[in-house]
Write a structure and sequence with these properties.
Helix content is about 35%, strand content about 30%. By secondary structure, it is an alpha/beta fold. Bound molecules: adenosine-5'-triphosphate and magnesium ion.
């Protein structure tokens, strides 16, 4: 759907050159929800604004649905932009227009005949759950409702691609979840490709299929969200993942240990779960099979999009031979095991 090759963007401001994007290459597949995460100033907005040519790239190509949009003339670009919707952190609604007229606006610009446009607006308001707010003005709406208007407006011309620049950053966590759910629903229902940028790993965790990490104007890591969560390879990804899923066991817990009876050994292990194995009672079956005791030290179980994911730190106590077999059993069931301490 989107193919970015060797994209660079240099801004000139007060006699200085600012390299905002440095040789960025990226592919976004049709129908996926792709996230780009990075700290403030990393270049996220610049990247997303280049994709609809709100910002002109300094170098490189951007192919959207088979056409290099950096090569389009004004008229062609105007048409291409109608097929790319965009939503913003600050909603960017027209305050003098009603909700209905805000959603109507892009259809007026595209010169869609009034009866057809009005019908379309009704459908969109229904889709985003705002039918009863059609006659209100933006300042009479909550942040979440404003963003719903923003989404309806972005979908007005039936885009194939939706770009989201921090669309949930101004919202509270619960409203954020409801907006993300709406994005997930329209991605499925309308087969819409969504590219979103955020500094919040929770957003990535909630909706994205794949993610790219941008750091200091460069893409430093790209992969499936599950893969990045379970195995972040760069320090930047690591700190984003840790902000959401705490993998590090607090030190005082690492050094505490349960009293053992004679002849038994103990191992402190971290078990990581992804997907189907999280739904199986593997720990209890290990306890029965190998006659070990388990003490839960620390844990974190969560969902990434629709897949269970997490890690548990356990102290496993038992007779040495059986203890090793017990861990081999968990490993054999597809769990990732890391021994943190042997005693
Ligand atoms: N119009 C501009 N003129 C000059 N420099 C700019 C302009 N827009 C952005 N920059 C600079 O480019 C770099 C990247 O900015 P960008 O807005 O893309 O970051 P961002 O990742 O979106 O940050 P944030 O999370 O704070 O929105 C920054 O150093 C910024 O100061
Ligand atoms: Mg930004």
């Amino acid at each position: 759907m989107i193919e970015i090759k060797n994209l660079s963007k240099i801004y000139f401001a007060s006699g200085q050159e600012i390299l905002a994007l440095d040789d960025v290459s990226l592919t976004v597949q049709k129908g996926e929800i792709f996230g780009i995460i990075g700290l403030s100033g990393a270049g996220k907005s610049t990247l997303i604004r280049c994709i609809n040519m709100l910002e002109k790239p300094t170098r490189g190509s951007i192919t959207v649905d088979g056409r290099d949009i950096t090569l389009l003339g004004q008229q062609e670009l105007r048409l291409a932009r109608q097929k790319i919707g965009m939503i913003f952190q600050q909603f960017n609604l027209l305050s003098s227009r009603t909700v209905f007229d805000n959603v109507l606006f892009p259809l007026e610009i595209a010169r869609v005949p009034r009866p057809e446009a009005a019908k379309r607006v009704q459908e969109l308001l229904e889709l985003v759950g705002l039918t009863d707010k059609a006659g209100m003005h933006p300042d009479q709406l909550s942040g979440g409702q404003k963003q719903r208007v923003g989404i309806a407006r972005a979908l007005a011309n039936g885009p194939k691609l939706l770009l989201s620049d921090e669309a949930t950053s101004a919202l509270d966590p619960q409203t954020t979840r409801s907006i993300l759910k709406l994005l997930k629903d329209i991605n499925r229902q309308l087969h819409l490709t969504i590219l979103l940028i955020t500094h919040d790993m929770n957003v990535i965790k909630e909706v994205c299929d794949r993610v790219a990490v941008i750091d200091n104007s460069r893409i430093v890591e790209v992969g499936d969200v599950l893969e990045i969560f379970s195995n972040p390879r760069t320090p930047t990804s690591h700190s984003f993942v840790n902000a959401v899923i705490s993998r590090e066991v607090p030190v005082e817990l690492l050094h505490s240990s349960t009293e053992r009876s004679g002849g038994t050994a103990s191992k402190l292990i971290r078990v990581s779960f992804i997907g189907a194995s999280a739904g199986k009672p593997l720990i209890s079956s290990m306890i029965r099979r190998y006659n070990v005791d388990v003490n839960i030290i620390y844990g974190n179980i969560d969902r990434i999009k629709d897949t269970p994911f997490g890690n548990l730190t356990l102290e496993v106590l038992g007779y040495p031979g059986l203890l090793q077999e017990a861990l081999d059993y968990l490993h054999g069931q597809g769990l990732e095991i890391e021994v943190l301490r042997n005693a």
